[in-house]
Specification:
- The chain has a 6-stranded parallel beta sheet with strand order 3-2-4-5-1-6, with helices on both faces.
- The termini are far apart.
- The protein is of the alpha/beta class and 198 residues long.
- It is globular and about 70 Å long.
- The chain has a single domain (36-180), classed as Rossmann fold, CATH 3.40.50.
- The relative contact order is 0.20.
- The protein has 7 helices and 6 strands, in the order αβαβαβαβααβαβ.
- The structure holds adenosine-5'-triphosphate and magnesium ion (MG).
- It is an enzyme of class 2 (transferase).
- It is found in: Cytoplasm.
- Residues 1-20 are annotated as: Disordered.
- Pathway: Cofactor biosynthesis; adenosylcobalamin biosynthesis; adenosylcobalamin from cob(II)yrinate a,c-diamide: step 2/7.
- Belongs to the Cob(I)alamin adenosyltransferase family.
Length: 198
Amino acid sequence: MSKDQQKHQQRQQKIKDQVDQKIEQAQIEKGLLLVITGNGKGKSTAGFGNVLRATGHGYKACVGQFIKGGWDCGERNLLEQHQVEFAVMSTGFTWETQNRELDTQAAQEVWQRCKQWLSDPSIYLVLLDEITYMLSYDYLDVDEVVAAIANRPAEQSVVVTGRACHRKLIEIADTVSEVKNVKHAFEAGVKARQGIDW
Ligand code: ATP
Ligand code: MG
């Protein structure tokens, strides 16, 4: 073995030892609260990636979408064929929101379903997609949402997505990732694309 190869092997062995030690130290098993926030693209796709992962292992997953659901959502088309339940707003919140009362009512309807999921131990994963906006706009009560998530079954995981996540959710979360916007095609005038953006 050359000197270079030997050096490389030693370095890799050191990294492996450190990783092995960390793996050994991680002893806690529990459901997690993950928050995916920030201004860059990829939050909802990451959340749905988790739903896919859980579903692929045979676990039950449910999705609450806190945005008007009349659009053609690729993930929903696929996942509903795999017994993933969805609750989406029939009316109300869009990006050009205009009617506070309707929005609140629509958000509450989706939230009531989500609350049931958050108390059902047979559900392994709940995705609360875009729920952060409901808290920013005061359509849902932050303390109620925090309490429902905090008191969920011990083995259940929750993924929260959306920009500007409320600090109370960040505080109780286990894993928080911030997706940073480096650039986005839309800023260069490129249209949103089926299969990429929805
Ligand atoms: P995605 O659903 O693609 O994972 P996201 O959940 O991170 O995106 P949202 O803030 O929920 O982002 O916005 C949804 C839509 O807005 C998507 O079509 C996405 O491509 C687009 N979008 C996301 N980030 C940006 C950005 N920084 N500038 C312009 N458009 C964006
Ligand atoms: Mg999103």
